[in-house]
Hints:
This protein is mostly helical. It has helices spanning 2-28, 39-49, 79-83, 87-104, 108-137, 140-177, 186-224, and strands at residues 56-59, 67-69, 74-77. A three-stranded mixed beta sheet has the order 1-3-2. A hairpin with a 4-residue loop joins strand 2 (67-69) and strand 3. Helix 4 (87-104) crosses helix 6. The longest helix is centred in the last third of the chain and has 39 residues, at 186-224. The chain starts with a helix and ends with a helix.
Amino acid sequence: MExxxxxxxxxxLPIWASSRVKRTYKKYSKVQTTANMTGAxxxxxxxxxxxxxxVTVRPGKGFLSDHYNPKTKEIVLxxxxxxxxxxxxxxxxxHEVGHAIQDAESYAFLxxxxxxxxxxxxxxxxxxxxxxxxxxxxxxQFMLGGIIFFxxxxxxxxxxxxxxxxxxxxxxxxxxxxxxxxxxxEPHAKxxxxxxxxxxxxxxxxxxxELLRFILMFIGMNGDD
Length: 225
């Protein structure tokens, strides 16, 4: 019964978080801001208000594919957010600018996350191979190695949380202080940002649950010996 609850959690949590983001975004993508500015204009306005002129804003492809690339100094907004004038688009654009501001200020958690990227990628790629080999071969060494690699990927997930929450906080502060949204629009923007943050929380929780499962498996193997 416990194993069924476990698998239900790791399957349902991400689906629920993703569904909530899509519902919230869809709802507030139909609400136009009183500032009548596109997501691209919102991003550029906040960048310039913070004295950042070396970051470009360009349209991307796909649905909610918005991101900030610190290597190329680009904010990439999905087409609807780049061209649209919705509260949802403004919130998403401001959030990505939040990352650009973090980058400009050398925000500690952002720097740490960048350093962890190669370690996290390595952990994601090799941990399951080592863990599976450990299970099939009954090797404690392989199992432990896989757990260590996977723990690095989990650490990356949890370091991502303060980065994302801080970017959302900066986004709200910037939108309010620059007059890009008004009082009645603030709750709408917060709901969009909070829903997006849930996807990162869900991913971190699922990763932690997986890590705990592997640790319990390792302890069980050790006990069998």
